[in-house]
Design a protein that fits this description.
Blueprint lengths: L10 E3 L1 E3 L2 E3 L3 E6 L7 E7 L2 H20 L2 H11 L3 H16 L3 H19 L2 H4 L3 E3 L4 E9 L2 E5 L5 H5 L3 H7 L2 E5 L6 H11 L7 E3 L4 H9 L4 E7 L2 H12 L4 E5 L4 E5 L7 H12 L9 E7 L3 H12 L3 E2 L15 H16 L3 E4 L2 E2 L14 E4 L6 H4 L6 E7 L2 H9 L6 E5 L3 H8 L6 E4 L20 E2 L4 H6 L2 E9 L1
Parallel strand pairs: 1-5, 8-9, 8-11, 9-10, 11-12, 13-14, 13-20, 14-19, 15-17, 18-19, 20-21
Antiparallel strand pairs: 2-3, 4-5, 6-7, 7-23, 12-22, 16-18
Helix pairs in contact: 1-9, 2-4, 2-7, 3-4, 3-8, 4-7, 11-12
Length: 488
């Protein structure tokens, strides 16, 4: 950070739909979560009419885009990614200032968006594959068709990477898209989407910012919107479903998680494994849907895990995400800071030991911004809120177990089912335990977004969502199945 935060240039973004930039009479004020005061910039606050115009543009563009072959669409999308590398450093700086996470993570966010787009276009040859059912009694062809105009709503924490899990799949399948960035951190997403959209035919890709109350209904309940993809909380998912019900718009929901990690008695807990476990818990200040939220450790390895995490947490430097020595930034919002603080306080009051860690970078005022010291909550009761609820912050409960069946039962005793992990030196044992865990994705000897196989589908069970992203399954989610039968 070469100059004080309040002296950095402010960023302004507009709307972009039907191939043209557009302003708005009102704006969203974007504030730096590191101090809660410095204005990062302003994003256009669209009216409901402007959001509807973006949907109309996507609807008009759909027939022409769908008529192109998947390979043509892949070529156009690949070419549209060209400006991203040049803009990456600037976009990462903006994202850190509006989101709060450290700059390295913001760079990764942008890189992952582009990487996921390139992975998706490699599947172009599979998009129009059909299944032939031989006669008798009929000769039937099963094919896939794009849906139409779709809306993609992304959250604040990893907006570009999360967008990369659905946007390229939607476009490659032949759909047109309206993107709604998060209102509290819209700037970097608008920059990125507009760069790509400018190189595509008008109306194929559009981006609209504004308040949920003003533009949400226009982007969700409009009969021209054929699908809504939403990443956020379970409560937000329920609101999206309710809004979409009137128009029978289909939804894909990637919601919260209460991810368990099971460290078995034979786990390798060397330095590399501990760094991986640490990252799976505390990356992005714990604000990742698939982060470890509950850590179950065999009693024989419990002290070892606590000591390993303690050593790593002791080196954490808390500060502004642009500060060169900062390794952990603030939480995104004051409300989330207070929520996590409340969970930790309740655990302490219930009798659990809480250990807090980290040093504070020069010039950082913990109480001024949304900063929290990272913490370990040791051996809390299984009904403690920090165990039952999703913290989405820099804390984790560590719970000992004696029996493997007990650990699996505890791991599955939750409202969520997004991700999980098993830590063991025995691959067969890992597979056996993983098969018993109710989650959409299970890691072995790793945990978190850094370890995803992005060729595979991703999504959750139960209240963690519905539908899948990435891979060919993610593309099929944006298509309808069409069967054509001929007499034998």
């Amino acid at each position: 950070m070469t100059m004080p935060v309040d002296q950095l240039p402010q960023i302004e973004t507009g709307l972009f739909f039907d191939g043209e930039p557009c302003g708005a009479e009102d704006v969203l004020r974007v504030v730096d979560p590191a101090d809660g005061e410095s204005v990062v910039g302003y994003a256009a606050a669209a009216t409901a009419e402007q959001a509807s115009a973006a949907v109309a543009a996507a609807d008009r563009a759909f027939p022409g885009w769908a008529a192109r072959s998947p390979r043509e669409r892949a070529e156009l999308l690949t070419a549209a990614l060209a400006p991203l590398e040049t803009d990456r450093a600037a976009t990462a700086g903006v994202l850190t200032r509006e989101n709060g996470k450290i700059r390295m993570e913001s760079v990764i966010d942008s890189v992952v968006f582009e990487h996921r787009c390139r992975l998706a276009v490699e599947l172009a040859g599979e998009v129009e594959q059909t299944t032939q059912l031989a006669a008798p009694p009929y000769r039937t062809e099963v094919a896939y068709r794009p849906l139409g105009a779709v809306t993609i709503i992304v959250p604040f924490n990893w907006p570009l990477a999360i967008l990369g899990a659905s946007l390229p799949q939607a476009l490659l399948a032949g759909n047109t898209v309206v993107v709604k960035p998060p209102p509290t951190a819209p700037l970097a997403t608008v920059r990125t989407v507009e760069l790509v959209a400018r190189a595509l035919p008008p109306g194929v890709l559009n981006v609209v910012t504004g308040t949920d109350a003003e533009i949400g209904p226009a982007l969700i309940a409009d009969d021209r919107v054929k699908k809504v993809c939403f990443t956020g909380s379970p409560a937000g998912g329920k609101r999206i479903m309710a809004m979409a019900a009137g128009s029978l718009t289909r939804v894909a929901l990637e919601l919260g998680g209460n991810d368990p990690a099971l460290v078995l008695a034979d786990a390798d807990l060397g330095p590399e494994a501990m760094r991986s476990l640490f990252g799976g818990i505390f990356d992005s200040t714990g604000q990742i849907c698939m982060a470890v939220k509950r850590l179950y450790v065999h009693r024989s390895r419990y002290d070892e895990v606590v000591e390993g995490l303690t050593g790593l947490l002791s080196n954490v430097v808390i500060g502004h995400g642009l500060a060169e020595n900062a390794t952990m930034g603030p939480l995104h919002s004051p409300r989330q800071k207070e929520y996590v603080r409340e969970l930790v306080a309740q655990a302490r009051a219930s009798g659990a030991e809480v250990r807090e860690f980290g040093t504070v970078a020069d010039g950082t005022e913990l109480e001024r911004g949304n900063f929290l010291l990272p913490s370990l909550v040791l051996d809390p009761s299984h009904d403690t809120r920090v165990v039952v609820e999703e913290q989405f912050g820099p804390t984790v409960p560590i719970l000992p177990f004696d029996d493997e069946d007990e650990a699996v039962a505890r791991a599955n005793d939750t409202w969520a089912g997004l991700a999980s992990s098993v830590w063991t030196a025995d691959p067969d044992r890992a597979a056996a335990v993983a098969s018993r865990l109710r989650s959409g994705y299970t890691f072995v000897n790793a945990h978190g977004a850094a370890h995803l196989d992005e060729r595979a589908p991703f999504g959750g069970f139960d209240h963690s969502g519905m539908g899948r992203e990435m891979g060919i399954e993610g593309i099929r989610e944006f298509m309808d199945t069409h069967a054509i039968s001929f007499p034998a």
